[in-house]
Design goal:
Bound molecules: alpha-L-arabinofuranose
CATH architecture of the largest domain: Alpha-Beta Barrel
CATH class of the largest domain: Alpha Beta
Shape: globular
Oligomer: single chain
């Protein structure tokens, strides 16, 4: 099968905000306990943070990490997780049916985020709690001194403020599964009042308001519009969440789901602009895609997990080759919408629907989805180029006109590089890609790296990696500076990174 793309220096979508290479750690399952934090583990540092896990997080160059939830946050008292550990209460986490020891809290998370060079995106509880508690949390984290909450932080041994710049106004507040979910009107009211106290406490922070929990929520559209009517002047972003499933093992359909994600983004951006127009505002609300991933493998196992235990192995999806392709399509979709998506979090980061898995007291290893994220995070920071694709299309059970090739290019001006990310959705045939490279200085083909496996159900494990990138030979580039042609063969069902310099 043949495909043609054009990358022209003058035709760009926008700059990638590095925060689109973010992730998420929730107090859920083994994400924190025996994930990032395991005192006594042979790889743990003095604070109990696992160095083997921290090294993998650093390898991914994760820019921002959302915390502490997720559904968990809607029942969370942030005060439970600060101060002397021996005085911290054990609580029931009714969102996930577990016990929370609170041995790890906001200060530990801020220290860990610093260790892995990531920015913190902190969520406040707008389920069981109110605007005042949210404001107090900002004061505790960000106010220098001489007030009750800033001095409380100092009394906990944290002299300098954390300076957390990014905050979420609750989590999935439209979802019936959420502790104290709300109507759009109710949420809009509490969100704006929380936002006022939070921003008046620290005007340098940015806020993400909850959008609908997913594209197919019946309230989608009305929810965003009502919430933004209330919070427009104080919020900076509206959130989007999406999880893909492949329950019927229909991979062509599964790989079409990113078309829906693209539509979700464009529709949400349109609604933000509708409210902007209604308010005659100069301010643009951008998008925070702060939960995205594949999630379904663990659904049945999770039903059998004993309730009210501490850090049980919940949501431990083991990802296949097909899942890595779906994750690759999602990353390409985020890049293609770089003009509006400014934050995105792969949900989650360790053990819970995660690219990184750990064994308690044992090793840490990379899932299949680790690799597309790694490539995009390392090589996707620059100017995203418009990438018109000419290729055959197919229809699946739920979607029409799915292009067999999904692709995008990123120009990294300071390094004089172009990086092309591409998924071949054709499960049986290679794609002979012809790329027109126009308007750049002379480019050489540096490397073509491919993630593929003829078994789409192949998985990685602690014992080894069946799915990992390999260097692909055979690509060529010809022509003169300003007008070159790249030819490369993309194997069936593959994720590709083609590096030009
Ligand atoms: O990431 C797992 C869960 O998915 C989060 O807690 C929630 O926000 C979403 O429904």
């Amino acid at each position: 099968m043949k495909a043609h793309i054009t990358l022209h220096k003058e035709f760009s979508i926008g700059e990638t905000d590095k925060r689109i290479f973010g992730s998420f750690i929730e107090h859920l399952g083994r994400a924190v306990y025996s994930g990032i934090y395991e005192p006594g583990h042979p790889c743990a540092d003095g604070a109990g943070f696992r160095n083997d896990v921290a090294d993998l997080v650093k390898e991914l160059d994760v820019s921002v990490i959302r915390y502490p939830g997720g559904n968990f946050v809607s029942g969370y008292n942030w005060e439970d997780g600060v101060g002397p550990v021996e005085k911290r209460p054990i609580r029931l986490d009714v969102a996930w049916g577990t016990k929370e020891s609170n041995r790890f809290g906001a200060n530990e998370f801020a220290a860990w985020a610093k260790k892995v060079n990531a920015q913190v995106m902190m969520a406040v509880n707008l389920g069981t709690r109110d605007a005042r508690a949210a404001g107090n949390f900002v004061e505790y984290c960000n106010f220098p001194n001489d007030t009750y909450y800033s001095d409380l932080r100092r009394s906990h041994g944290i002299g300098e403020p954390h300076g957390i710049k990014l905050w979420c106004l609750g989590n999935e507040m439209d979802g019936p599964w959420q502790i104290c979910s709300r109507t759009a009107e109710e949420y809009g009211r509490v969100a704006v009042e929380a936002a006022k106290i939070m921003k008046w406490t620290d005007p340098s922070i940015e806020l993400a308001a909850c959008g609908s929990s997913h594209f197919r929520m019946p309230c989608f559209g009305d929810w965003e519009s009502t919430v933004l009517d209330h919070v427009y002047d104080y919020a900076d972003y509206i959130s989007l969440h999406t999880y893909f499933a492949n329950r019927e093992n229909d991979v062509p359909n599964f790989l079409g789901r990113s078309l829906e994600m693209d539509c979700f983004i464009k529709t949400a951006a349109g609604i933000c602009d509708l409210v902007k127009a209604k308010k005659n505002s100069k301010k643009t609300i951008n998008l925070s895609f702060d939960e995205w991933n594949v999630w379904y493998h663990s659904n049945e196992t999770d039903k059998k997990i004993e309730k009210w235990t501490e850090a049980p192995p919940l949501l431990e999806d083991i990802y296949t080759m097909a899942d890595a392709l779906a994750a690759g399509c999602m990353l390409i979709t985020l890049l293609k919408n770089a003009d509006r998506v400014k934050i995105a979090c792969l949900a989650q980061l360790v053990n819970v629907i995660a690219p990184i898995m750990t064994e308690k007291s044992g090793g840490a290893w990379r899932q299949t989805i680790f690799y597309p994220f790694l490539d995009a995070s390392r090589y996707g920071r620059g100017t995203v180029l418009r990438c018109p694709v000419k290729v055959d299309k197919y229809d699946s059970k739920e979607y029409c006109d799915i292009p067999y090739l999904d692709a995008v290019g990123v120009h990294v001006a300071e390094k004089n590089e172009i990086n092309i990310f591409a998924v071949n959705r054709n499960l049986n045939e290679a794609i002979n890609l012809e790329a027109e490279i126009a308007g750049f200085g002379e480019m050489n083909l540096v490397e073509h790296r491919v993630l593929c496996n003829s078994d789409l159900n192949a998985v990685n494990s602690a014992a080894g990696e069946k799915v990992k990138p390999v260097v692909w030979q055979g690509g060529t580039i010809e022509g003169k500076a300003g007008s070159q042609r790249l030819d490369a063969s993309l194997p069936p069902a593959s994720w590709n990174l083609i590096k030009l310099s």
